Amino acid sequence: MIADLRSDTFTRPTPEMLQFMMQAPIGDDVYGEDPSVAELERKMADMFGMDDAIFCPSGTMTNQIGIKLLTQPMEEIICDKNSHIQIYEGGGIAYNSLISSKLIDGDRGMITAEQVEAAINPDDLHQPISKIVALENTMNKGGGAIYDMEEIRKIAAVCEKHSLHLHLDGARLFNALVVTNDSPKEYGRLFKTISVCLSKGLGAPIGSVLLFNGIPRIKAVRLRKVMGGGMRQAGLIASAGTYALDHHVERLKDDHRRAKQLANALKEAAFVEDMYPVETNIVIFKVKNSAEMVKTLAEKGVKCITFSPVHVRMVTHLDFTDDMLEHTLQAIHSI
Ligand SMILES: *Cc1c(COP(=O)(O)O)cnc(C)c1O
């Protein structure tokens, strides 16, 4: 048996999801004629109480469009130094938006209102104009850490006070929501733009949604087009997102339970030197040599990845079953 814990992106559509996809009504979405894309966009916008949404091929694209929509060249974004938008999007912030980044040293990737306020540049022509703040929830590099809603409210208040926009990389936002029971509509009120991935824990094969408030739809659609994200019969894949929202949200709790069980076994293991708190579906632990540990685990039929020279990451997901959990626990005990 192989347990693949490299990422929650490795899931395949379930037979029921595939069935739903096959029956979806489709059309040319570049002409705005795909009813299944429109349905997904409306469903998400309504859920978050936001004005509108666009369906895109990837979370990188939804983040990049969100940032581009809210900035002009020479301005600056404030975010954690380990944000996905900063370290895993190929330099896209600078390339697409022609802006600089003010990087904050957050706690497991989570920044505070105080840090945000201190990072805002003064009105000085030497310095770029601070324009946007971006948060990531859950925070990948922080081990799937969840933001405290009270802190988000404070950050939003700082943004309001200084006329900064607030963007959320919510690639795994639903993982946070099923734990905290925070309201999607409150997220919709606090953020100007929100990116949500359907292809992570939700288990759709492709796709992300960018939600937005107070921005003409045509501006978002134009940016998507120029980035090559205008898709034709995209309802084939958007319908998988709709299916996932209806069937794969509550079950994220199963992924979280399995992640905690992995964490409990790892805590007891002699080879583990330290661990991040496990709040959702991501488990990060510290060893002497992560490359060697990944190799050892692979030989025992457990796939995971290095997250630094001394950190290993495991991510639970829809295709990681209780049998695979048992298999992984045995592999951990045997080391
Ligand atoms: C996966 C992910 C994204 C988007 O990635 P794509 O592979 O482009 O869909 C954005 N932010 C975070 C935190 C992610 O984990």
Question: Can you describe this structure?
Answer:
The chain is α/β, with parallel strands linked by helices and 335 residues long. The longest helix is centred in the last third of the chain and has 17 residues, at 252-268. The strands form 3 sheets. Strands 2-8-7-6-5-3-4 form a 7-stranded mixed sheet, sandwiched between helices. It has 2 domains: 13-247, Aspartate Aminotransferase, domain 2 (3-Layer(aba) Sandwich); 251-334, Aspartate Aminotransferase, domain 1 (Alpha-Beta Complex), CATH 3.90.1150.10. The protein has helices at 15-22, 35-48, 59-69, 84-87, 92-97, 113-119, 149-161, 173-180, 184-190, 217-226, 235-247, 252-268, 290-299, 322-333; strands at residues 3-4, 52-56, 75-80, 100-104, 129-136, 165-170, 193-197, 208-212, 274-275, 282-286, 302-303, 305-308, 311-315. The mean pLDDT is 98. The chain has 14 helices and 13 strands. A hairpin with a 6-residue loop joins strand 9 (274-275) and strand 10 (282-286). The structure holds pyridoxal-5'-phosphate (PLP). The site of pyridoxal-5'-phosphate has 13 residues, from helix 3.
